[in-house]
Prior knowledge:
Layout: H1 25-33, H2 93-110, H3 115-156, E1 159-161, H4 169-174, E2 190-192, H5 193-197, H6 204-232, H7 241-248, H8 259-274, H9 282-297, H10 301-304, H11 307-326, H12 329-340, H13 346-366, H14 390-420, H15 427-442, H16 446-449, H17 452-460, H18 494-517, H19 527-551, H20 556-559, H21 571-587, H22 591-601, H23 607-624, H24 629-637, H25 654-657, E3 670-671, E4 675-676, H26 677-686, E5 691-695, E6 703-708, H27 709-722, E7 731-733, E8 749-750, E9 761-763, H28 768-778, E10 782-787, E11 790-796, H29 797-807
Parallel strand pairs: 3-5, 7-8, 9-10
Antiparallel strand pairs: 1-2, 4-7, 5-6, 10-11
Helix pairs in contact: 3-8, 3-9, 3-11, 3-13, 6-8, 6-15, 7-24, 8-9, 9-11, 11-12, 11-13, 12-13, 12-22, 14-18, 14-19, 14-21, 14-23, 14-24, 15-18, 17-19, 18-19, 19-21, 21-23, 22-23, 26-27
Amino acid sequence: MESEQLFHRGYYRNSYNSITSASSDEELLDGAGVIMDFQTSEDDNLLDGDASIGTHYTMTNGGNINSSTHLLDLLDEPIPGVGTYDDFHTIDWVREKCKDRERHRRINSKKKESAWEMTKSLYDAWSGWLVVTLTGLASGALAGLIDIAADWMTDLKEGICLSALWFNHEQCCWGSNETTFEERDKCPQWKTWAELIIGQAEGPGSYIMNYIMYIFWALSFAFLAVSLVKVFAPYACGSGIPEIKTILSGFIIRGYLGKWTLMIKTITLVLAVASGLSLGKEGPLVHVACCCGNIFSYLFPKYSTNEAKKREVLSAASAAGVSVAFGAPIGGVLFSLEEVSYYFPLKTLWRSFFAALVAAFVLRSINPFGNSRLVLFYVEYHTPWYLFELLPFILLGVFGGLWGAFFIRANIAWCRRRKSTKFGKYPVLEVIIVAAITAVIAFPNPYTRLNTSELIKELFTDCGPLESSSLCDYRNDMNASKIVDDIPDRPAGTGVYSAIWQLCLALIFKIIMTVFTFGIKVPSGLFIPSMAIGAIAGRIVGIAVEQLAYYHHDWFIFKEWCEVGADCITPGLYAMVGAAACLGGVTRMTVSLVVIVFELTGGLEYIVPLMAAVMTSKWVGDAFGREGIYEAHIRLNGYPFLDAKEEFTHTTLAADVMRPRRSDPPLAVLTQDNMTVEDIETLINETSYNGFPVIMSKESQRLVGFALRRDLTIAIESARKKQEGIVGSSRVCFAQHTPSLPAESPRPLKLRSILDMSPFTVTDHTPMEIVVDIFRKLGLRQCLVTHNGRLLGIITKKDILRHMAQTANQDPASIMFN
């Protein structure tokens, strides 16, 4: 239901303008001190939803948290389910932090009582480090497994190693003595499918057979991946980063970080990458790492029983995920801080750093690529860059920003169309069609046939004397002395020009296919395809600048620093800068992205070109829309996420946004001591609200507190069982002192202990920009609006999101979990 349905018969209240002033100062003070709290199953439906699940007790007072009453004082034994959250709820950050402080104080107060209590205290203190250590170990091991399996299955599309079936193409030829320098990937142990099936290694028949087998394996892998996702773990599809951002902001999506999702995502990620689709494994690795963090957090009560503390572990896990995805531990920590985390205290920074360290260490121990590096495309450049080169670097930044803006709009439009048409009902068919088109077009072009990580490696690599790629087919000056690390700029040969044409076709192909691939129902990351697009563009620009400098070295822009026979331009550096610019244009990351790419290359020298390109791409992208791709997908899916980067500049007041509006029905309430058990049970049965405000009387409108529906139900049921004399006509008392009753009256039921009397409140004249800031910084789900200490209404997170959508001329009805 919408928030218009929050309010119900039984309590008529005029608009706030008609509220009369309090009769005395004392009354004002009393009214201001006890303002009620609302809790909800879906933020917006604060008094609406399934009463049997998902309700929870909260203590949300800005300055008097310790004065909150304890729900568990109501009964002798703990009440099952109290304090937990149901699916698609938002957690109460203030309450969770208060609960953790209370737990910490309790442990500290007991630790001197005995050696066992001291041991429990030490275990509690170290549990944070233990859980991130386990998360780092698991993330590194799974990343190594995924890398090795994806490489093997990618090569399986082209052939098989007869001497050892588990070797990929490169490993198969390592031990062969019959390889030549020019044809280092050809060895008798490795057989293409054409050689195995029709016995031909060359010719049109061989080409067609290899083409058919390439398509067959690509479709097989894609079909298996989408089938596993659909049947076993629907949450395993996509990148996972938009949902992780939402989860870290306090939203709960049950099963998204569960063991089935982890298992299926790990398997299908390998299949999706091996199928040749235009996607990467880096984004999903963050999801995999967060699944590990979530599963391990259940081993420690400190984290399993506290949703806010659990999110500290997930922040560290996301850092470990990026650490193993790019071999960039520092970049992973910054990525977690800049891009995904909502609440990031200093100790989470240290634990994120440690988790990233452990994960990177484990991956390095596994050494999945056989190059003693954490990533396939690690490169080192030795040529310095020159001031003039900032111009092409900035142009690459402009290209990255334009690509990012285009991709976000095109991909969101396609995903919205998928949601609103019948096409979205056939995810398996969509994946098969996209995989078939990708395989058919990719095979003829050697650059699109390559695994995308291999393509980036080739584009990043500088041309040395040992390179046999067509990108390095330069015409050599036979008189020049050959120096391994400093080959002079040379005129491009025919191989370079044909490679440029192939790269241009690959660029168009990647741009189109990535738009349609990101968002299909298989694990699909965006980092690698975006980097590939930028690397292709950068390499083309790098070769163009290199040839310009070679043929026009007497121009004033080259004359000062580029002499004849010198190695001035490094095309691979341009590819790296272009990759960073395009990834920045899509995600709008800045600091973390520069550090990730810097860690990839290991060169401090190229920080300035990277910063220039990344900032340019962000500025250009922001000119077309401030949202990155992850924020756009969060909005598309309707998750209740308040983006801290988004500015609120409108001059509205809390009274303009709060509910109820003048046309809305009034609120269903409980009175302090005038209702019977039967009255409350009737109200509970006739409504579906999750809680009710408690007032002194319907005439005074003075608030006493707020009682949750679930707590009322549990308390009444327990009282009927355990207390004699509680019947339907028993008076229910929420006051501190029971009023005098006639002698023949049944025993009253005291429910003062289940009230929350310290919620967060603002006045009706509070500017909305302050309200929005409060919601962001405290992680609130709702706050109450008061006038002279009397309740006027309520503002929920979804009310704010709807209001922000309206001010941006967007459809406010889209702010709902889809």
